[in-house]
Amino acid sequence: MSQSHASPAQVNSPRTVLFASLIGTTIEFFDFYIYATAAVLVFPKLFFPSTDAAAATLQSLATFAIAFFARPVGSAVFGHYGDRIGRKATLVAALLTMGISTVVIGLLPTYAAIGTLAPLLLALCRFGQGLGLGGEWGGAVLLATENAPPGKRAWYGMFPQLGAPIGFFLSGGIFLLLSETLTDDQFFSFGWRIPFLASALLVIVGLYVRLKITETPVFQKVLDKHERVKVPVVTVFQEHGRLLVLGTVIAMATFVLFYLMTVFALSWGTSALGYSRPQFLMVQLFAVLFFALTIPVSAVLADRYGRRATMIQVSAVIALFGLLFAPLFISGSIVHVTLFMSLGLGVMGMTYGPLGTLLSELFPPEVRYTGSSLTFNLGGILGASLAPYVATWLATNYGLQYVGYYLSAAAVLTLIALLLTGKPKTAFAVV
Length: 431
Hints:
Growth Hormone, Chain: A, globular
């Protein structure tokens, strides 16, 4: 037992742990979002035939969806090693997978240069991005929550969640800067590649921090007690299948809301509503501040009142927001659109903050990496992979109000799943 206590004694300080979990997800989401932005602004013109602009946009959004189908694969692969070898080594591998895929996108030749091979290579890199993010998120959340002191698990668990608005802010900011400093010809000639290539520097910083961390005390206890399972993904499906399904649906509304407020809103705002690219990016960058500010607020509430109770309340608010979607967004006023974006992303922070902690609490430590990653990323398939595509189709064929109904329906399903999920029975404490 003395050896068992020796390892936890070497655990990093809270500041190191929280920074390591935050910097990694910031880099991962920066990489992920620069693709999302480019899928709307760049790829339809450079990587797909330009005969039909609407069809090119839909094809580009289809490649955007590929990563969400790759993410559960990444969850299973990286989750296996995260639950067998450890959180630290797996997090490093996931970050490298994501980073290399992103840098290669910045080096790809366009459709004009190599024809149909260009979108195929783009799709392959997008798959690599999804694979890496599928393994990154769960490990980052566990790095934080499995080091959290009693009563502060949601607070610790919100730090990797903060990587999402920070990554989004950085990605939107760099595209806005490029739009303001380069001509359209320069932007589409070489400027769009800069964010993808620049991510290499961020990955180096992330790797440096990740390599300095030690194993979490909770997983160290699993190692010391020889509680590892042979194939974690099989154990999750066989012994925790119900929680896997419920956790997936719990994550669904969060994904639908976010990708409607970012990818779809940018696409619709710069096309159907006629806003310029810099103008709408400025609105999104302002609104994402509310996303970042409400994440810690939700974490405080989740630690005080419980993760599940907080998520139930917020899911009801998302359902109501869906009914306001069209009236606010369809307005020709930039003030109303800014209010719409700020409200939507503010609510997004309220649901995103406790989500990682709640999903991780559904599973025992020996399969927690795999289980929490799978629920989050299967929720991505269910809620986000096709959200921009479905929303564009609904708005074009039936009107913008049906996009709001789509969001409300997703929130109701999430609410039902939360009500069906009992209080978590798994413990984090190291004894």
